[in-house]
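Need tokens for this chain, all 536 residues.
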Amino acid sequence: MLKHSLTLLALTTALLSPANAGPDALIKAQDLHQQLSSRPNPQQLLLLDASPTPRFRAGHIPGAVSADFWRYGMNPGSAGQWQARMRGWGIRQDPAQRIVIYDAGADNLATRVYFDLLTHGIPAKRMQVLDGGLHQWQAQGGLLQQGEGQAPEPGDMTAQPADPRWLAQLPEFVSLSGEPQRGRLVEALDPQNYFGAQQWFDRAGHVPNALMLPHTELFNADRTFRAPEELSRRLQHLGLRADQPAISYCGGGVAGSVPFFAMQALLDWPQAKLYVGSQREYLLDERRLPLWQYAQRSPLRDRAWLAGWNNRLMRQFGATHLTVLDLREAEAFQKERLPGAIHLPASLWQQHRNEPARLADLLAQAGARPDRELVLVGAHSGLSPDKALALVLLHDLGHAQASALDESVDDWALAGGDMEKGAPNARTAPTPAPRWQAPARSLRTAQIPSPSAGAHRQWLGPTPTAQRPGAALRASSLLQANGQPQPAWQLWETLRKVGVDRYAELLVDLPDSGEAAQLLWLLQLAGMPKVQVVQR
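Here are the structure tokens for all 536 residues:
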């Protein structure tokens, strides 16, 4: 049996700082080769190959032990079972023993074995992952050994129960899904799964408010991990923060180990966790927990929802939690309208789009309440320009409880929906509402901001120029004939094909403010985290 030792290297001052502590979790192939060649103490370095057994037999680093993840896979067992497993791999209690874990490279098996060992008592400082895996080992001239390999000398490690510092459970996972301002969920599956084009289980999509971070995006083309600075920039661009909880997941808890490793081991984020149960456990829950397909909740509400929450009985007893706000002009509103609707025409939204204080006054005068959801209805179906603009301006006022009916008022009436006809009587006339605060935040910009450090930007509009490089894009290319957004996967594919980069800071520059607002919403539904509309 080939056994090798790990020569301890002195740490530089830079590597001792917290910001640079993470890279020690990786070892380069050339460094591993040098340390194996020195061999001052053959028992101090343990190589674990996390690949499936057939791949291990086909070729592994000489002296490596097969730690085939799929042999225990979805059923890792108790602490006692883990103890037997670790001892069978040759893991000893000796803190001087170092463990290097590898897979094929740009895979997810080594990081999952790292996580399993970490949560069962192996200190992070004893472990490293081979950067680039077997691919880089061979690229650097490393030889392979075929066959079963020799059995390691049994270890004496005492396994600990799974450590909750890094292991998320379903209640915590569900709670964070509903509170994205407190922390974020990170899905490590590819866009086809995230947006619902493919599915693992009985339903397609992703957990509400989860960010998409395919594990493959964390690697370079040579299968090594991206530099810590680049990883940090990408994660923060997506909305992740080092000082908040971040729980990664996937279909069965394997691919999710890659973002976990990047956050916990490479970036030293203290609140990173992996939800091993992932979608497999989440979707088995008897509550039938939801999945989304768009990256965020669609602003569109359908007929059944509005009819249910705005029915006559709910309004009679004051139990409804919403207000219907009609964007049509006065003549159409006076003729007929949805029951209980108030009125603020699209022309006024357009006229005062750059005057948030004036819009706040108009909303209060119309009878809109800042503590209720506003459901916008109008002359057009889908995410029409007038609805999209009003939704953006409501968000400018800090009113997140805003949505729009996915059909026109005429379609509602033709399908037999309840309507009030004639001039509004005293019962439906608006009464003054509490004062709106304006503005809380803005999704638009009057002046073009400087790009964030290390970031690049794209201009989105009819005709990008050399001075404003980007992608030619109109909102109409992302909408269906009925004005509704394309299905989530198709929306993502359309943006990908025209070259929209979600790691860029996107500036929407369109002459029509309504279309610009449409495009802003559509980009957000596709998971573009940093989008601004250039104010005109």
